Amino acid sequence: MMNNSVAPVDGGQDNDEDLSKDLENWMSLLPQELKQTPIIHLAIPGSHDSFTSEITSDSPLAPDAENAIKKLSFLGPLLKFFMVNWSKTQTYKAADQLIRGIRYFDLRIGTKSSTEDLFIVHGLYSATVQSCLEEVRSFLDTHTQEVVILDFQHFYGFRQSDHDRLMQLIYHIFGAKLLPYSQHMSYVTLQYMTTQYRYQVISVYRSDAARFGQPLLWPSNSFPNPWPNTVSKSSLFESLHRGLSNRPSGSAHISQCVLTPPGWFIFQNLFSSLKKQCAVKLEESKSNWIENQSPGPGGLNIIIADFIELSDCKYVKDVINLNQKLIATSNKKY
Fold first, then answer.
1. What is the pLDDT of residues 186-224, one digit of tens each?
2. What Å distances lie between residue 218 and 40, 248, 257, CA to CA?
3. Looking at residue 69, what is its pLDDT?
4. Does a structural domain hold residue 129?
5. Which pLDDT value is given to residue 66?
6. pTM metric for this prediction
7. Which residues of the chain carry a pLDDT beneath 50?
């Protein structure tokens, strides 16, 4: 498979240096030349449907539940018993993912008629958005050289007033940590964000109408995020390769390295789970694919996965260590 990214070059620092030896502080410990590399050219590990760990069989149906599932809601606990196994994509809460090196978070958010609180959703309700964001802020307060990307991906049951409430929550929690939007992403480096300034959060808000006039929120086109939407491993990697081949210069890129089971697949494996049937079975192929990638222009940037802790966080370590390939070339002006 062709790779359109920067090739490793001999010389400079030892390319075998383990950049993942301290997952909690991996950005802080990067060599200086990588801190001066645009973040759109770094390899950054993320999680898919990031904050679903608190979904339980007691969780109510969320507004993103498919209509067919909503029609079966009369089955009550029996329906939700099966749904939990196919709705949870992560084991760990925000703080535990951050400690394990995750720096990109994918948020799907829904309203709830009985409260003004906003919730993480994936078929069922998970934690409140506020509790998740406060966990992130607490980590950043004590890890001042680490940076996160929060991708507010989908909004369910939202009116403009709900968007306004969410945006105010983001501003209230992160305040001066929020990096203002700019069309020119080549200057955005870890050094620029955390040394020249004290920025630690890039907040992507994928409702351009709702975010209009908000300088602290980043639009969708800054972080293209193609969805492979397949349960086939071969189709997944073809889609990921196609996404990187067509990657626009000057913006970030998100590779969704996840299998998406359609209804028939879930029905066939009803008594199993997303973790067993998709995440675990993808693990080896995912690892092989990642090891064959390189960051840099046209290369792998942000990648997301389910159940990031599998194989002792091998996925996270593999992605971080891809940045070894940039060490000898990071002084090149992109």
1. 999 999 999 989 999 999 999 999 999 999 999 999 999
2. 14, 17, 23
3. 81
4. yes
5. 84
6. 0.92
7. 1-14, 330-331, 333-334
* 159 and 212 Cβ atoms separated by less than 8 Å: no
Q: Identify each DSSP E strand in the chain by its residue range.
A: 44-47, 104-112, 115-122, 124-128, 148-156, 201-205, 254-256, 302-305
Number of domains forming the structure of the chain: 1
Residue 316's domain comprises 23-326
- Hey, what are 11's tokens? 């010389």
Choosing from 41, 48, 163, 253, the catalytic residue is 48
Point out the catalytic residue in the list 41, 122, 143, 253.
Answer: 122
Q: Examine the residue annotation and report whether 122 is marked as an active-site residue of this protein.
A: yes
On whether residue 134 sits in a domain, the answer given is: yes
CB contact set of 183 (below 8 Å; sequence gap of 6+): none
Q: Which residues share a beta bridge with 204?
A: 151, 218
Residue 76: per-residue pLDDT: 79
> Would residue 13 count as lying in a domain?
no
Q: Which residue has the tokens 């383990």?
A: 18
Three-state SS at 138:
helix
Which structure tokens are listed for 13? 């620092």
- Which CATH number characterizes residue 49's domain? 3.20.20.190
Cα distance between residue 117 and residue 110, in whole Å: 9
Residue with tokens 């990588």: 34
Specify if 143 maps to a domain. yes
